[in-house]
Every structure is written in C-alpha cells, then in structure tokens.
Amino acid sequence: MAISFTLSIAQISLITTTAILIFSTHSTATKTGIPSRPFKKVYAFGDSYTDTGNTHSSTGPSSFTYVSNPPYGTTFFHHPTNRYSDGRLVIDFVTQALSLPFLPPYRNPKLDKSYGVNFAVAGSTAIIHSFFVKNNLTLNITPQSLQTQLIWFNKFLESKGCKGSSASTTQECEAALNDALFWVGEIGANDYAYSFAGSVPSETIQKLAIYSVTSFLQALLNKGAKYILVQGLPPTGCLTLSMSLAPADDRDDMGCVGSVNKLTYLHNTILQTKLNDFRKKFPQAVIVYADYWNAYANVVKRNYGFKELFKVCCGSGGGTYNFDVFGTCGSPASSACANPSQYINWDGVHLTEAMYKVMAHSFLNGTFCHPPFSHLLSKKLQSG
C-alpha cells in the first residue's frame, strides 16, 4: 500500500518477548515449525505492502517517490531493493518460512521465476485505474490495478504453456498451479485514499473495490488455484499519515483515527462474507483469510516492545510524528532513526521490517488466520 495525500486533505509478558525474539532469527523455516518446502512456488499480488520491486522511484505513487534511495532497505538488504520498508516484507518472511527464495518482481525479466513471481505494485488499486481518471481523482497516478496483475499472471501462465480462463488438466497447467500458494496481499486501501475528499462516496468505492477483489479471486479459482490466502486491510487509521492529517478528536480506543479505521473494518467484514461464499462454491480449494486489521490492532494495544506506535522512523519535520508529506523518507530533507525495530511506522504509510516480522508470525503461527495457516498446510501435505 502506498497511500498518497496532499496537505489539504510494552510489552505485556516475557512469553510475548520470547516469541518475538524466536521469530527474529534468520532461520524462520525451522522456528515456525513449517515442513520444508510444502509449496513449490508462490504467486503474490497486492500493493506496496507486498511489492518486492515492481515499482521504482520513477514509477512510484506521489509523495513516496524515493523508494530507490537509501535508507530504504538498510536493515536487512543493506541497500534499496524497491521495497517500501527498511527491510523485509510479510511476503519475504512467508517465503523464508516455506524454504523458498524471495519472490522476484514480475517486471524484472532477468530474475529466476521458477519458484514463483510477485505481481504486486506499489500504489496499485483494486478498482481499475480508468475509474479514477473518469472521476478526476488525480491522486491516483499509478496506472496498475489488480486487473493489471491478473493480466500479467495470465501472460506468465501462457509463457509456461498454460492457456485458457478455466481450470485445465494439461501438464503445463498442473505444473504451474497445483503446488502453488496464492498470496493475495492487502489491496483496496489506496482506493479509499485516492478518493478522499472527492465526489465519489466511500460506499461506492467500497462496493467497487470488493467487487474487483472478488472477481479477481473468482478468476484464480476458475483457473484451478487450490491454496489461497487473502489479506484484509490493516487499520489504516493507525498509520502516521492518517494521524497527522485527522483532527485530534477523531480517535478510537487504540488512539488511531476512528473514522478511517471504521471504514477499513467494514471493508474487511464484507470481504470475509464473500470468502465464505467462495468456500461453498469451491469446496476443493482452501481459502484462508489473514486478519491484518486485528493482528495490527493487537500490537498497537499491547505494544510488543515497540516504543513508537505512530511516529515514523524515516521522515522529516520533527514534532510528534516526524512526518512531512513534502519531505518523505529518502528525500534530501529526511533522515532515519538509529533503531527501526523500535518503530511500527517506517515512512508514514509503510511499516518497518520489525512490524512486518510480527505480522508474518501472527499469520503463520498465531491466531489471526481463519482457518489457521496450519490448516492450509495440512491440506496441502495430505494432497501430496
């Protein structure tokens, strides 16, 4: 997710600490208890929360156009990788836990894609881009949407000899689809952000965004996808950008922007209902919902060792949030904190590697997937 706006618009126990420290080790495959390489490949979709390099500074969303500059990537990779964080994302921890390499971005033709592909694009929307152009919602300068990612995926399958919109029994399609995990990262937060203060009601955005996501999932299931994980939206009212722009009296019980969190929570509720419908329609598939909203909220409420819940690690301007939309992370005016692991927010919209690490652990080993991720794994192992 790479939300764009303009100016107008403790840790509760030793057990918790130990759990986080265990997951912090590099050898996540052993520590998570996941059998080595249960999936042969992973296909990922979404926005900047999942994008591992399809976007560069020259193509990124407005206000966050420095992803190719230091200090992005400084924590783990020690150089910018066009990930919107100081290090790894949730999808990176997922592939490590599954004993697979980091997913290569689709737009880089030189990288090995035999273990999967990442189609996610920073700034991407669920609703097709032309909708925002038609309604003069000029904050959306990213032309790619979830539909674009589906087109890319279809082209990738065709390059592997798998053609057609329906499930196929050809050897090429079986090789491309049967042993794959489909990771649908959060998508839709940008739709709401780009339409902020616009003429299109949030209810319309919600309806169209949900329709776009469900149509996308329907296409994957029709092709024969068997193992799908779908992330909900995080509580975007807890992001520094939202906190810095909203009036001080618009707060919920977490101290975040209540009106924004209410909108994303409702979005997730509707999405979960749609996923239940798909489970009935495609009983042969395992469809997991990753509850990003409550996993994130759990950290905000309990701290989990983070000292800064809302202030950015990398930004400018000082003050309560150290955030200036005209001097975002990577720009000449910005600087980064000495210890990103103490912060949840990296640049005002995106999260630190430390927070992504906790989120990944919450999904893979915690109680924030429905059904649990272990259920998906057991079904895969049973099928061979």
TrEMBL record:
Signal sequence annotation: 1-29
InterPro entries from the UniProt entry: GDSL, SGNH_hydro_sf, SGNH_plant_lipase-like
MF annotations from Gene Ontology: hydrolase activity
Tagged with keyword Hydrolase: yes
A Pfam family the protein falls into: Lipase_GDSL
Keywords carried by this UniProt record: Glycoprotein, Hydrolase, Signal
Gene3D superfamilies for the chain: SGNH hydrolase
Entry superkingdom: Eukaryota
Family: Belongs to the 'GDSL' lipolytic enzyme family.
Protein known as: GDSL esterase/lipase
Organism: Forsythia ovata
